[in-house]
Task: inverse folding
């Protein structure tokens, strides 16, 4: 994860059923951004988040292109 931005809108309550909706909003060479919403059982959005994920080489710790298999899954 490279960056996470969260906007807390309303509190969740104990024992409340919650749903997370997630979609990919950008898909680039070495990164992808997810937009997420946390929604309660009444349909109220409690939280919004944007998550930027970057693929890196595990030895060099430098950005590398996303694997083609991952890109294919999300297109």
Result:
């Amino acid at each position: 994860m490279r960056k996470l931005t969260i906007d807390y809108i309303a509190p969740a309550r104990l024992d409340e059923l919650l749903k997370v909706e997630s979609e990919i909003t950008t898909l680039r060479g070495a990164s992808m951004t997810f937009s997420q919403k946390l929604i309660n059982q009444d349909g109220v959005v409690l939280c919004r988040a944007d998550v930027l994920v970057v693929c890196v080489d595990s030895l060099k710790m430098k950005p590398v292109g996303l694997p083609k298999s991952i890109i294919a899954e999300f297109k």
Observations:
- The radius of gyration is 15 Å.
- The CA atoms of residues 50 and 67 lie 22 Å apart.
- The mean pLDDT is 94.
